[in-house]
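Recap from last week: sequence in, structure out.
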Amino acid sequence: MNVKFKNYKQIQSLKNGPIVVDEIDYAKVISTKLYSQNFRYRLKTVIYSLFFDLNIQWEDFIPSSKDIFIVYGDYVNRRSDCLEIVGKIKKIISEKSNYCEVVLSDSFSFKGPRFYFDFFKLILKLKNCKYPKFFKFITSLMAAKYIRDRRIINRKFKNILKDSSCLISFCDSISYENLFIQNFQTMFPDGNTYTLQHGQYRYLNENNICQDAEAYGNFISNYMLCWGQATIAEFQKADISKNRFISVGCLRDFSSLKSLREGLSKSTHRAEKIFGVVLCGENQKETNVNLIDFAKKLSLLIGYKYRVRAHPSNKINYIKMLSCENCIEVKNYTSDLYEYYNGLEFSILHMSGVLLEFFELEHSFVFYDDGLLADVYKYCGNFTSSPSDVLQIVYKKLDSEKLKKYFNDNGSQDDIIRRVFDVYDI
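Predicted structure tokens:
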């Protein structure tokens, strides 16, 4: 068993165990923060736990019989694609329902004696558990922080939330949102909670395990508004019932891609041939390094230049350092998709939700398989570990409509969401 998978097993064993306090499982609250073994990250986690509290921003609203709370961390505000997802939900809900937007962020704060009392109580609870000493220390410290944060939530919302309320989180596996939802569920066990899909989730194994496994390992909401059957099939591998999923498709406005496709069809043909490289998030840093190396070999083999589409979490200068002279640009193209696609023959990628754009734009692509590619992506059939196979695979005809529906079943999106918030008795 490799180190990463051993750590994953350790994190899962902590759940429903010694750090459940007043019905809140703090192992679930902190789980996404326990994956990194990096010393600098762990030091930052200690400082974060000691000096930061939950800060809640929300606007006053007029309570009604069926209030809807849209809850998300402030990381959403830093990404236009995430804001688009939240905006789509708000637009549809506001047609008939009252909603309150709740943004969760950090604020600097010195801890009082009660925090340290909670911390030492947790240390004692974990004393006889067979975990490494530092793991027990950091687990207790973070859990104590979130116990304090729960009190902040209750001070603000205890008299506002009610059993007829509905909570919609952006991602229920992330700490603050997970805590907010668990707290609501302990108050109102029959209340309705929903979470939104914002990337192509996949079931991971010993070889490719990372914190993304918490998408299903920490799925605590009653329901997920998911993209399609591809997601449902992955969660079923984790023994999660298909009845907890409402397939609405990706909550993005793909109509803009139609005009982009028309614009690309009219663009001037370039003399030099170019392909694109789509990177994963920083939690797959090793794969990104291998993908760029694959792109360099492919570029030299077929004589094409390439441009790199960085993930918002990537460090651009580091990616540039890894690339070769055939790389014409490294950039996060989220705000200007035309600039990325213009002149591209095809793209190579690993595990990325950008796949949905490819279907909409009828853009050719090949998955790079380094032995870590999740099975959900192999469903497309166009994957390889060899640069010499790329051109043969990339022009193979795919059943785009079938794949598009499997990954992004958004045909009646608005109507389904309207029906959910009418029919599901919220």
